[in-house]
């Protein structure tokens, strides 16, 4: 855990060297959980709406690349949350992402299952890290990441 805390501290210093990090830092949890919400909404609408509405859903989520934007927003939010003082919320986001990957629960294949199990495993490892004493040592005040 101590080595992981050192890596996170150095990653935080590297991220703080970019100007965009200071601009996006206040929105890290919005990016993270908002992206999960959009991905879940896509799966939910595909599950409950009739096939005749798939054309409209394709326009919303693929022609306007809302699903791709949500995917990238999740990863940007995850990396930003990992180096912030809000790291305690990241395991829950990873577990929710595993749920979203499997969501309709109608076509579970080996690829989706392995992908979801990886997110569950990484979430468990981060949960153990966030419960350790090293998380308090490695994180500075939350004010530092919000500077422009």
Explain briefly what this protein structure is.
With about 150 residues, the chain is mainly alpha-helical. It has helices at about 1-15, 20-25, 30-50, 55-65, 65-80, 90-100, 110-130, 135-140.
What profile does the largest beta sheet have?
Answer: none
Q: Write down the secondary-structure element order.
A: HHHHHHHH
Uncertain parts: 141-148
Report the average pLDDT across residues: 90
Q: Overall 3D geometry?
A: globular
Record field, number of beta strands: 0
Helix content percent band: over 70%
**Integer-rounded radius of gyration:** 17 Å
Q: What separation lies between the terminal Cα atoms?
A: 30 Å
* Structural classification: mainly alpha
Helix count from the secondary structure assignment:
8
Query: Beta-strand percentage?
Result: under 5%
Helices, strands, pairings?
Layout lengths: L1 H15 L2 H6 L3 H21 L5 H10 L2 H17 L7 H13 L7 H21 L3 H5 L10
Helix pairs in contact: 3-5, 3-6, 6-7
Write a structural description.
The chain has 148 residues and is an all-alpha fold. Helix content is 73%, strand content 0%. The protein is built from eight helices and no strands. It has helices spanning 2-16, 19-24, 28-48, 54-63, 66-82, 90-102, 110-130, 134-138. Helix 6 runs antiparallel to helix 7. The longest helix is centred in the N-terminal third of the chain and has 21 residues, at 28-48. The protein is globular, with a radius of gyration of 17 Å. The chain starts with a helix and ends in a 10-residue tail after the last helix.
């Amino acid at each position: 855990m101590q080595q992981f805390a050192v890596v996170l501290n150095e990653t935080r210093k590297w991220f703080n060297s970019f100007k965009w990090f200071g601009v996006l830092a206040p929105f890290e949890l919005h990016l993270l959980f908002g992206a999960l919400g959009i991905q879940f909404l896509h799966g939910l609408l595909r599950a409950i709406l009739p096939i005749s509405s798939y054309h409209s859903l394709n326009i919303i989520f693929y022609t306007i690349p809302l699903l791709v934007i949500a995917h990238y927003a999740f990863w940007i939010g995850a990396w930003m949350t990992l180096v912030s003082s809000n790291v305690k919320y990241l395991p829950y986001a990873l577990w929710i992402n595993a749920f979203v990957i499997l969501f309709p629960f109608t076509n579970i294949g080996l690829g989706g299952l392995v992908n979801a199990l990886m997110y569950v495993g990484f979430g468990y490892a981060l949960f153990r890290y966030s419960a350790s004493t090293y998380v308090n040592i490695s994180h500075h005040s939350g004010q530092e990441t919000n500077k422009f």
